[in-house]
Amino acid sequence: MTTDYYALLGVARDAAPDEIKRAYRKLARELHPDVNQDPGSQERFKEVTAAYEVLSDPEKRQMYDLGGDPFHAGGGFGAAFDFGDLMDAFFGGGGRRRGPRPRMSRGQDALIRMDVDLAEAMFGTSRDIQVDTAVLCQACSGAGTAPGTQPATCAMCKGRGEIQSVQRSFLGQVMTARACPQCRGFGSTIPHPCVECSGEGRVRTRTALSVAIPAGVDTGTRIQLSGQGEVGPGGGPPGDLYVEIVQEPHPVFERRGDDLHCSVQVPMTAAALGSSVTLETLDGEESLEIKRGTQPGSVLTLRARGVPHLRGTGRGDLYVHLDLVTPTRLDDEQEEILRRLAQLRGEEGVTLVVAEQEASASGGLFSRLRDAFSGRTTG
Fold first, then answer.
1. Ordered structural domains, the chain, with CATH
2. The pTM is what?
């Protein structure tokens, strides 16, 4: 052998396979005829490709190092080489698997959605569900063959799982490979498939599952059930099942993150004099103390009465928005009492008009009184 393949690639004689591959990829990018239009680049590209073909193959490299002819089968560069390996090296592929592919593979993951109410989302619960999925075929235990039979070696590819062909190109003879059309790349066929699964190794059925829903879930939360997805082809391991939570709206409480909000109507007199109100929460009855002189828009906070934190400890809060209610219909006695109150507070006549304007600007109590007595107050 007169050609120094190591010198062609610019590597040492003890270079590692990865170093040889990197050197070839660099030169191939520079010399490929689609990139370099120099007339001499094509011949140079052939030389470095031949060098890579020899040095990337342990057997050919050993023969070359011992002084033998690595192309003894074909007699020179015109011998066929694997175009797939060439493209993997040129485009940076991670190396494709050679030989037949296994029939057994992992099953797909599955996703279902589950509606829960606010109480279930807050405190957690357990649900029994029915899932249509693929399970292992019990008749053949996933093998896909009828009882007493075995897969047969594919007659077309002789068990290799691929069909190779050689074509001429400017590089010489290029070998390409494709999956065998008869066995679909498995390298074997099933002459007598299982009658239950038709050779798939799995069958579809409805399965009952119990799902534990933790406290604090919200819309969009996904619960992973490992190994509860579909069994893979050929009886392969199952995938995972994901349950996505959808929380239904509540008629009283509005959820904002882990906090809850609600509105409570308070009579005008209770707000002015102070009172105690009982509120039915998701934790049970809570007593709310309405302070004397409470104004519209006031908010009472009940600590740790919200939703538990899904990731962490503690709970959110419950915010109670007070909606003061002003009477719209008064009998004569009630109206007289309110007029008397206005006199005692100096809020009648001209002074009352000024007070109403100020109260309207701030949304106060007597702006609602004005609405109640509209058209009935005289100066």
1. 5-91 (1.10.287.110), 99-134+199-248 (2.60.260.20), 254-325 (2.60.260.20), 332-372 (no CATH)
2. 0.62
